[in-house]
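Hi there,

I know you've been waiting on this one. I reran it after we fixed the sequence typo, so this is the corrected version. Both the input and the resulting structure follow.
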Amino acid sequence: MTGADGRFTEAAMWQALANISDQLGVVDADARLLRLTNNAVFALPTAGLVVRITRTHRLHSRVYKVAALGVWFEDVDAPTIRLAPGVDQPVADGGLLATVWRFVAPHEPPPDAGDLGVALRAFHSLGTPPLNLPAWDPIGDARSRLDDAEGLADGDRDYLLAWCDRLEPRLQAFAASVEPGLVHGDAHEGNLLRVGSGRVLMCDFDATCIGPWQVDLVPPPANEARFGSTGGHSKLAAAYGYDITQDSSWHLLQEARELKMIAAAVPLLASAPGVGEEFQLRLRSVRTGDTNARWTAFGDLPR
């Protein structure tokens, strides 16, 4: 059973969790849904597990990638969450795939951008894993979101595709000029967990790839430029030891980030309340060069 966006509904994902729990031989009356995006993420605190189930068949390659990364993270003692022991990964339920992780109870204080800088520096120092990871390809990702998207006007599609065409060779030239390394791909405070020892661990490796390390430092300052300053960028720069806004690649990478933040709305235009208006505001501000317009995070839009 799928919703209007082509992804499996919440009810279907709860049923998949029940089936996977049966396979694992676990029962957890306290199971709760943590997130429902490209994945349905469930916490089973009594069983000590977190189950991430992909909601679309199109992302199955990511599940195998993430499972392989989880094994490598354990081998190198990466600053990351760990796969559940004794489970063949990924776990299949019919046409759905899941990865199963050890549950980490969050501890105070919540991780901030300074913690992100420390975690990223350790993550980037791991080196390149002996895995066939995808190359960093922000334009390919943007184009995939634009393909056959419902609710996208032809004029807007044409503008975004032309933007992709203009930006792609510049990003390719930049990537070729930098020694490639491990890139988290979605590094922000929401993908950090603090454990009882105080150590902060990274999670959510769907976008992890091989590319320029600089791209992991871009979201905080790029977000502050559009959503308003939070002080996160200065904390990140101090903790990591590098200010990406002083890098010669900054404006190029900022533009790539803004394209991503606009293209991310496209699959939601036909189904999510308020996204259409926010999409138009973002697109209009870029097209007119309006750097004063303030964007609103999709998660903060009225439902």
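Quick highlight: The first helix runs from residue 10 to 24.

Best,
R. S.
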